[in-house]
Amino acid sequence: IEIETSTEGEGNLPLRQRILGRTSLHDIIHPVTNEVLLAADEEIDEAACDRIEEAQIDSVWIRSGLTCDARHGMCAKCYGRDLSTGRLVEIGTAVGIIAAQSIGEPGTQLTMRTFHIGGTAQAVVATPEIVTHHAGVISYEDDLRVIRNDDGQNIVLNKNGALVIRDANGRELERVTLQIGTALQIDDGAEVTPGTIIAIWDPHSVPVLAEKAGIVSFHDFVEDVSVQTDRDAQTGLQTLVVMESRETLHPQIIISDPATDSVLGYYHIPVGAHVMVHEGERVTPGRLLAKTPRKEGKTRDITGGLPRVAELFEARHPKDAADIAKIDGVVEFGENQRGRRCLIIRDESTMAYEEHLIPMGKHIVVFKGDRVRKGQQLTDGPIVPQEILDVCGPQELQSYLVSEVQQVYRLQGVEINDKHIEIIVRQMLRKVRITNPGDTDFLWGEQVTRQQFLEVNQKISEEGKRPAAAQPALLGITKASLETDSFISAASFQDTTRVLTDAATMGRVDELRGFKENVILGHLIPGGTGFPLYRHIKLVPLAEPIDVEELNAAAEAAQKKAQDVLGF
């Protein structure tokens, strides 16, 4: 039941905000004095947050709904604090409904907000400067490839390279992920103070950069077939723009050594790129050869955002999706096949390799010789959640979905607690798909809940038989609600006839555990005081029963006293 929370990539959300009210998984120990700041399974309250901040701990393992093993619902420890009372959540609270409402409610306000502003005014403005937030020593990470240009600046050559700022003890204070073409203003090992500009990048275009000095020649540049001359009406400048061609032309810039005529580098130029050099020109390392305008300029406000949230929660296949690396290794390029580029990732230790065939027009964001990690993007575009699940596993997918949904809302300045999104994601990942039934009664490709799968496997293993194998399945929220254990709940949602026919054919039994099925049948809902735990409570009076004669005598005495006082 582990998620590691850190401040990286979360719109600089302080750790305190993300862990307040959650439950610690392990003992939280002071890194210097080794004293226990908070025991395992304790609520992280305000005082604990202060202690964690003072100790400068930057990541904490907490219990989370994503990995809670409770059979029905989830346990109070994994949920943590009830945000309406500020105390540990009570048993019987409808946390799923609260989660759905917490995510749905801001959406209604936000769509109205965009009406007033209009689309373009809310476009996200990326700042070209990267500024430090902490004082410390700059260190270039191993996977950062840089080259020094004529101006003496270090230019970043690969995507996802990182700069880290460390304190005197070598502890990581801040991590900055850099884009291709970022000009680093500060050398490796230099000391910085908060507010220092450490890098400048172009947020509006993706560059193609020369890695070595040499002479430029063009390959497959055919006027009005693969390239066209674009003239800027204001400046009168002409630039070559690569266009989509029906023929098998693959525009490339080749850099060769003027002395030996040997080729030093091939640079594939994507569709839509503006070529920034001329044929026969001599270029130096780090020189801009071409640039492709970024599509990110589209408004990423909630009108672009609500469909994005729906796309994530419905686990849809996004348009023009990115390819991701399936193994760790080094990038190589093979022969083109059937009009596609062949990108190979080879694991140097085992020499195993994985081939990716990528359409010609797609912009590849890795270069030959780059080291890539499993799950890293190879081309531009949104990532397919299903692929993250297959390649990196459920843990990675959960953190990806939570951070992507949070990003959309944070852009609008709306804060939603992580636990609400975690509950929805938990429901999307409840099922597993059977890949090998072993000696169980499961069928190939059948979808069953993870809990059911584990229970059956445990039983089978105890009998000494072969257990089943399965892989996690990702269901969109519509599909997940149609595939709940309760057929009454599913029938009340969509496809009523089909759901009821299926249930009747399979002879299914509804346990009436959820809200919807109980409401439909007119039962008390199993939430709050109707929760089964509270149903059989008997009240035992603590006071002694009073004798009837004593009661009458006391009443007469009181009446007599009242008559004496009032005088009638």
Question: Can you walk through the features of this model?
Answer:
There is one protein chain. The chain is α+β, with helices and mostly antiparallel strands. 26% of the residues lie in helices and 21% in strands. It has a five-stranded antiparallel beta sheet with strand order 5-13-11-8-7, with no helix packed on it. Residues 6-10, 115-124 and 297-303 have low confidence and may be disordered.
In short:
With 568 residues, this protein is α+β, with helices and mostly antiparallel strands. Helices cover 26% and strands 21% of the residues. The strands form eight sheets. A five-stranded antiparallel β-sheet has the order 5-13-11-8-7, with no helix packed on it.
Task: Describe how the helices and strands are arranged.
Elements: E1 3-5, H1 15-19, E2 28-29, E3 36-38, H2 46-54, E4 60-62, H3 76-79, H4 95-117, E5 129-131, E6 136-140, E7 146-148, E8 154-156, E9 161-166, E10 172-178, E11 183-184, E12 191-192, E13 197-200, E14 205-209, E15 214-219, E16 227-231, E17 238-242, E18 252-256, E19 263-268, E20 274-275, E21 282-283, E22 288-293, H5 302-313, E23 329-333, E24 340-346, E25 353-359, E26 371-372, H6 385-392, H7 394-411, H8 418-428, E27 431-436, E28 447-449, H9 450-462, E29 469-472, H10 477-482, H11 487-491, H12 496-506, H13 515-520, H14 548-566
Antiparallel strand pairs: 1-4, 2-3, 5-13, 6-9, 6-12, 7-8, 8-11, 9-10, 11-13, 14-22, 15-18, 15-21, 16-17, 17-20, 18-19, 20-22, 23-24, 23-26, 24-25, 27-28, 27-29
Helix pairs in contact: 4-8, 5-7, 6-7, 7-8
